[in-house]
Amino acid sequence: DAGVIQSPRHEVTEMGQEVTLRCKPISGHDYLFWYRQTMMRGLELLIYFNNNVPIDDSGMPEDRFSAKMPNASFSNLKIQPSEPRDSAVYFCASSLGTGGRNTEAFFGQGTRLTVV
Amino acid sequence: GESVGLHLPTLSVQEGDNSIINCAYSNSASDYFIWYKQESGKGPQFIIDIRSNMDKRQGQRVTVLLNKTVKHLSLQIAATQPGDSAVYFCAENIYNQGGKLIFGQGTELSVKP
After folding, report:
1. What sign does the CA torsion over B23, B26, B32, B38 have?
2. What is the dihedral of CA A99, A102, A107, A113, to 10 degrees?
3. By a Cβ cutoff of 8 Å, what residues of chain A touch chain B?
4. What is chain B's pLDDT, residue by residue, as a tens digit (113 residues)?
5. Max CA-CA distance within chain A?
6. What residues of B are in contact with residue A102 (Cβ under 8 Å)?
7. How far apart are CA B46 and CA A105, in angstroms?
8. Which is nearest to B55 in space by CA: B66, B46, B45, B64?
9. What average pLDDT does the structure give for chain A?
10. Could you report the per-residue pLDDT of A1-37, keeping only the tens digit for each?
11. Residue A58: its pLDDT value, please?
């Protein structure tokens, strides 16, 4: 397996535009996570899915953020409208499930988002 | 924009020395822990894990120690090499909260040749 695949690697957009980040988890993994990394806040969990169902979205900063997982091989994170403070690296990760080593999250390379 | 950034704790060691990176966790219900290594421009990668019913686990050049009494984890790297330079995170999984991992602040390790 190629690992978790995220696209794009880099995104520069203007304030007010819609941004869509994409993720393909590792095949067979039941959990998918979206994290945001900034110098100010470190690595924050935004939302996670189990078997394509959102389980905990308490980390989503506000209504401008939404995430979906229409099937087991794809998820997207949307920001509409985007703001400069959304600039960060966004990581997608997937894992097999719960219990010990199954909890290990495998991370993608991340999408570096810059909102100007 | 942000006027104040979070400065990661930094550990600077000489090549060949041992490194010790510390992490405090807050939830006594956490039952599984992972140390991750993040190199520049990459996502975090698994180094070693430990369950809450253990207090020590060893891997290749790395050892993790867990002290549940004070909710403290440490990662020891033996004979530190320049390739070990990275940011290191501890992550905890809380029992009965599914498969999610909560990450600590991170420590930047810098290895001087």
Report:
1. negative
2. -40
3. 4, 30-31, 33, 35, 38-43, 45, 48, 50, 55-56, 84-85, 91, 93, 95, 97-98, 100-110
4. 333 445 678 999 999 999 999 999 988 889 999 999 999 999 999 999 999 999 999 999 999 999 999 999 999 999 999 999 999 999 998 877 777 889 998 999 999 98
5. 42
6. 99
7. 8
8. B66
9. 95
10. 689 999 999 999 999 999 999 999 999 999 999 999 9
11. 93
What is the distance between the alpha carbons of residues A27 and A37, in angstroms, rounded to a whole number? 25
**Beta strand B10-14 pairing with B62-67:** unpaired
Q: Which of helix, strand or coil describes residue B30?
A: strand
CB A84 within 8 A of CB A115: yes
CA-closest candidate to residue B111, choices B33, B26, B39, B63: B39
